[in-house]
Amino acid sequence: MQKKLLALLAALVLALSSASALAEQPAEDPVMATFNGENILKSEVDEVLPQLSGYMSDATDYRYAAEFLVQQRILARKIEEMGFNTFSAEEEAAFASEAESQWNEGIESYVSYYLAEDTEEARAQLKTQAEEFYTQQGLTLESLKDNLRQSAAVDRMSAYLVGDYEPSEEEIQSVFQQFGQSYQQNYENNIAAYEYNTYYYQQPSWYTPEGYRGIIHILLKPDAEALENYSTLTSRYEEQQSNAGSESAQTEAQDEAVAAEAEAEETEGTAEPTAAPTETPAPVTPEQIEQARQAVLDSVKAATDDIYARLASGESFESLIAQYGEDPGMQDETTLAEGYSVHRESVVWDPAFTAAAFSDKMVQVGDVSDPVIGSYGVHILKYLRDVPSGLIMTDSIRADIVDYLKAVRQNSAMTDALADWASQYDITYNEENIQAAIADAKALEPDDEGVQAVPDDEEAVEEPAVTEAPN
């Protein structure tokens, strides 16, 4: 319900597009409602149904859509009565300029999308096609100006209804705690979910789990061949260890070998010679891994020796990043000042990088790690800071909450005003036609019976979702 109220004002800004006026009216067009004797037809309701789908109880809610069109007419009438749709010459000029900019941008977007051969003739032809296409959709330069005027008029009405309202600190804190608790419940004990949502999907979070460190580092590029050899041997060794731990796999392989040998003896001399077995690579030893690791470190030894010597003499880690660092992320001022946020359970960083951030050398803020080999090269890390945890009110979050509260007040004021204004007009709803339209629409919906998914034996567990917060 709250979502519907919060979206009401935005929905009211939408005017019936001129495309509906150009569309051919059906032979039978039942009257859904009347406003001061003016009929609101089913074709008009059908036009706005897709726009309102997110706010209705279901896709066939003709009653809600009819009420929307009535409210649209009420709002338009009151805006006109109060003079909120009268603009100065300067404002009209601004509307015209913005509409022309939007129009030209739309034309250029169409041309760029369909342009196959970049010639003046091709561009001119596509420009004409674009103008015809948009006009057929009911979108013209004048309709763009009308939309801008309508939006500005509604903004004036909203400002009039809301007045000089500014959210109180108590209101701001209440919203912060309400939505913040939802973030905390989802992320407090789920580092993977927190990182996937905030790092990969760039979703905001008002809560930061405990245990994050700000890490900056110097990335050195070692000898490429040495790094590749080390990575290859490490991967082979890990696979080798994994296979060695599977007794069933070993037994099965031995049985298959014995069976193959027996079959070969039985058919010897009666069948084509089989291909020679592929030679199994020699096992990778820990000693080989260590030799490969040392070769990588040796290839950057001159740089690492210089870095540690200069750190010991008092030079800043940050200045050495500027001289030696190969990570572009460390060139960003904010990242350099705050560091990468790394947790013991992090899933977004190279495991070698994460392990180094929590190694025995990294005990307190200011500590520097030993060189560590990762996927991208050799890292030297610095423990820059402890990342503040818990619910944290930032300036950006505060601004979002203020906007949210103003939108709530705006919608509440608009809803109350529309309800009050409705009594000033002659409004009727044709319930028979509305219910008939609903029944017809439901009859056209696909029948999902028989294709519903059958649950597994184990009961499905639904992932918790973060409550929708202002953003």
Question: What profile does the largest beta sheet have?
Answer: 4 strands, antiparallel
Radius of gyration: 34 Å
Please list the strands of the largest sheet in the order they lie side by side.
5-4-7-6
Q: Given the C-alpha coordinates, what overall shape results? A: elongated
Percentage of β-strand residues: 5-15%
Average pLDDT number: 86
Structural class of the secondary structure composition?
Answer: alpha+beta
| Number of strand segments | 9
CATH class membership of the domain at 213-224 and 293-388: Alpha Beta
- Which CATH architecture of the domain at 213-224 and 293-388 would you pick? Roll
The rounded distance between the terminal residues' Cα atoms is 19 Å
Helices, by number, come to: 18
Helix content: 55-70%
Low-confidence segments, ≥5 residues, pLDDT <50? Answer: 1-23, 450-467
Q: Predict the CATH topology of the domain at 213-224 and 293-388.
A: Chitinase A, domain 3
Helix/strand order: HHEEHHHHHHHEEHHHHHHEHEEEHEH
Question: What is the strand and helix layout of this fold?
Answer:
Blueprint: H1 2-13, H2 18-22, E1 31-35, E2 38-41, H3 42-48, H4 62-81, H5 89-114, H6 120-136, H7 141-162, H8 169-187, H9 191-200, E3 207-208, E4 213-220, H10 224-244, H11 247-266, H12 286-299, H13 301-312, H14 317-324, H15 333-338, E5 340-342, H16 351-357, E6 372-374, E7 377-386, E8 390-391, H17 395-422, E9 427-429, H18 431-444
Antiparallel strand pairs: 1-2, 1-9, 3-8, 4-5, 4-7, 6-7
Helix pairs in contact: 1-17, 3-4, 5-6, 5-7, 7-17, 8-17, 10-12
